[in-house]
Design brief:
CATH topology of the largest domain: Rossmann fold
Largest sheet: 3 strands, parallel
CATH architecture of the largest domain: 3-Layer(aba) Sandwich
Number of strands: 5
Strand content: 5-15%
Bound molecules: tryptophanyl-5'AMP
CATH superfamily of the largest domain: HUPs
Helix content: 40-55%
Strand order of the largest sheet: 1-2-3
Distance between the termini: 34 Å
């Protein structure tokens, strides 16, 4: 039986952090067993805000190295960078003509990223979610593992797919391109927002998500941090004066405590209850060193493997080239069909 197809992407913008790792990359690794996976370094999304070109190149290789170091099998599955497969941009244009301005105006991430000076944001930043829809739909992907912050973008992707299917329903049927069980040309992709760490929060403020763009490096743990830095960041992480509660309900209203317990649970592969069974009633002076030890234990091997892989950029580039070729082989015939459906002369 054909395995369901998975697509997801990570931007090569600065340091990868524990949120990207637990919310996305670890999930990518798990899905390999029973899915056909396509994992993309989305360099075209990255330039929606200014990127230094040399830094973008470095970062593209670094995200690829992180994928490989975490255990993604680039031979069995596909790993590539977005700009090498032209169908992403081409399909995005067609979908730009399907998506409505009103839909994009509701995107909260654009509002956050553009900030107060919206007039000065790039058109690309505004259009970011449509390119993301193109990424997914270009492969007829069925499942998309992401962190909680991408939920609205995936809902938009489904709306765009649905509108395309409706607008062109007659033509799709005429050409015999309606997938039988799907009823339309584009399957509606299912978001996979699962696991104990779909929203890892900042170490400085438990109500804000851990993010690459936070000005304080103490707000996040980077995959490239050494053990001393990790221990220091956890030691300095914001907490409250109470000891850890005995039950999960006791974490309510204590966002920083809940976040640290969540990180521990995700890394140890246990539930929040399990963590509190072990640490309930104990103070942060005891919990923080245990957490630091666990983070170092789990991230050190990934960090070391990343460094080893990064020492051979030629190898990384070859992985991406090979992945792009195989990605193109899937996306090209699907985009040919899109052209036929829309009525482009070929
Ligand atoms: P990016 O690079 O910002 O984030 C990559 C992945 O990491 C997840 N993530 C988090 N998860 C938990 N806690 C956090 N604090 C945290 N911060 C980030 C994100 O949800 C994401 O899954 N728009 C995407 C990239 C993209 C994409 C796609 C994803 C482009 N095209 C197509 C899926 C399908 C993004 O924000 O990446």
């Amino acid at each position: 039986m054909k395995k369901p197809r998975v697509f997801s992407g990570v931007q090569p913008t600065g340091n990868l952090h524990l949120g990207n790792y637990l919310g996305a990359i670890v999930r990518f690794v798990d899905l390999q067993k029973d899915h056909e996976c396509i994992y993309c370094v989305v360099d075209m999304h990255a330039i929606t805000v200014w990127q230094d070109p040399k830094e973008l190149l470095r970062s593209t290789r670094e995200v690829t190295a992180a994928f490989l170091a975490a255990g993604i099998d680039a031979k069995e599955h596909i790993v590539f960078n977005q700009s090498q497969v032209s169908q992403h941009a081409e399909l995005a244009w067609v979908l730009n003509c399907v998506a409505r301005i009103g839909w994009l105006n509701r995107m909260t991430q654009f509002k956050e990223k553009a900030g107060k000076n919206r007039e000065n944001a790039s058109v690309g930043l505004y259009d970011y979610p449509v390119l993301m829809a193109a990424d997914i739909l270009a492969y007829h992907a069925e499942k998309v593992p992401v962190g909680e912050d991408q939920k609205q973008h995936l809902e938009l992707t489904r709306d765009i797919a649905q509108k395309f299917n409706n607008d062109y329903a007659e033509r799709i049927a005429e050409l015999g391109l309606a997938g039988e069980e799907k009823g339309g040309f584009f399957p509606l992709p299912e978001p996979l927002i699962q696991g104990p760490a779909t929203r890892v929060m900042s170490l400085r403020d438990g109500t804000k998500k851990m993010s690459k763009s936070d000005p304080s490096d103490y707000s996040r743990i980077n995959l490239s941090d050494d053990p001393d830095t990790i221990a220091k960041k956890i030691r300095k992480a914001k907490t409250d004066p109470e000891p850890l509660p005995e039950t999960v309900e006791g974490l309510e209203g204590r966002p920083e405590a809940a976040n640290l317990v969540g990180i521990y649970a995700a890394l140890a592969g246990v539930s929040h209850e399990d963590v509190l069974r072990q640490f309930g009633g104990k103070g942060f002076a005891e919990f923080k060193p245990a957490l630091a030890e666990l983070v170092v234990e789990k991230l050190s091997p990934v960090n070391a493997e990343m460094k080893r892989i990064l020492a051979d950029p030629g190898y990384i580039d070859e992985v991406l080239r090979d992945g792009a070729e195989r990605a193109r082989a899937i996306a090209a015939p699907i985009f040919e069909d899109v052209k036929r459906i829309v009525g482009f002369l070929m």
